[in-house]
């Protein structure tokens, strides 16, 4: 797998080692010669060179342009739906 083509802007990725807040999930904010990442746990923003990023990348969790992920943000679990009481 070529890791250069595996990620894009606004994707959520998992790194090999966790952040200080014990979270491995990061959102990609900028793609170029440097990659800007935002920690999904504490919100810290980190910038690193692309070569270092591809070395530390474990896997891509969600793709931003995937139509399946668009549907998930509108999903409401059954127990969170409020039903009116007409009794």
UniProtKB/TrEMBL annotation:
Record InterPro entries: DUF951 (IPR009296)
Lineage: superkingdom: Bacteria
Protein name: DUF951 domain-containing protein
């Amino acid at each position: 797998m070529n890791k250069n083509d595996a990620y894009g802007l606004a994707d959520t990725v998992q790194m090999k080692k966790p952040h200080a807040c014990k979270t491995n999930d990061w959102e990609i904010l900028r793609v170029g010669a440097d990659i800007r990442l935002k920690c999904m746990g504490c919100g810290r923003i980190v910038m690193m060179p692309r070569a270092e990023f591809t070395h530390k990348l474990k896997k891509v969790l969600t793709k931003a342009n995937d139509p399946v992920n668009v549907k998930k943000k509108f999903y409401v679990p059954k127990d969170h739906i409020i039903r009116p009481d007409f009794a």
